[in-house]
Amino acid sequence: MTISNIGLxxxxxxxxxxxxxxxxxxxxxxxxxxxxxxxxxxxxIDGYRLDDQDIPPDRLLDLAVVVGGDGTMLSVARELSRxxxxxxxxxxxxxGFLTDIPMADLESSLSKVLNGKYRIEExxxxxxxxxxxxxxICSGIALxxxxxxxxxxxxxxxxxxxxxxxxxxxxxxxxxxISTPTGSTAxxxxxxxxxxxxxxxxxxxxxICPHTLSNRPIILSETDQIRxxxxxxxxxxxxxxxxxxxxxxxxxxxxxxxxxSDRKLKLxxxxxxxxxxxxxxxxxxxx
Length: 287
Known about the structure:
- By secondary structure, this protein is an alpha+beta fold.
- It has helices at 18-30, 57-60, 70-83, 106-114, 187-190, 275-282; strands spanning 5-10, 34-37, 48-49, 63-68, 87-91, 101-102, 118-132, 135-142, 145-149, 157-163, 166-169, 172-173, 175-179, 202-208, 218-221, 226-233, 238-242, 245-250, 255-270.
């Protein structure tokens, strides 16, 4: 991959990270690269804006650099996946499984990328379509997870789960997390789901605080079709959340269709990156 033009995406409209974004921008420009600021980047930072260009992003950009935390990458990922643009993340957050390059290693890590010392990982994304009265009323994609959860009440919700039209269960719980391997170290992990190597072609279903303890996480093929229906949430609506963003408040008549998306996110990993080293460092395991 020849790298000439770079899209730079800062934490969403956050002036407090301007110093970091400017430092990354100056480093890239010092290497004779053209930098275009993405739509998440604070408007207070000077430079060429990607939205102002007449050329579509997929014909202009060779690489996207995301400065922030994993939440920033999740937001940018939905856009980048439309254009098949690879991305690399500079971490200003806490854990940083997606934005895994520390700010202190900025120059050495990006230099490796510019010198071709990297690989590209393709990460599975999920698509969710909400059907009501046999009409699709909304849809979205997620890199980490799709979550159906109760709203701010103490009552459990109930719903029916089917996989490839086969009945699975009707759990009573705080909700359910349907996760990609990338998202296995996010919300699904805190709900007791398994950690999944990001290259595996699978999807996990993890219940959130199930009333019946025999309701355990399930691993499926990424080609499986998941259907969630007959959603019962007493006194209030349930929430459908994709990558942490509230997408729809569920009344109960809706059917959720979840499957692998046609889109994938291309993540750039520098030479020497070790997923298992990342796990024990980020999760505080003994090394």
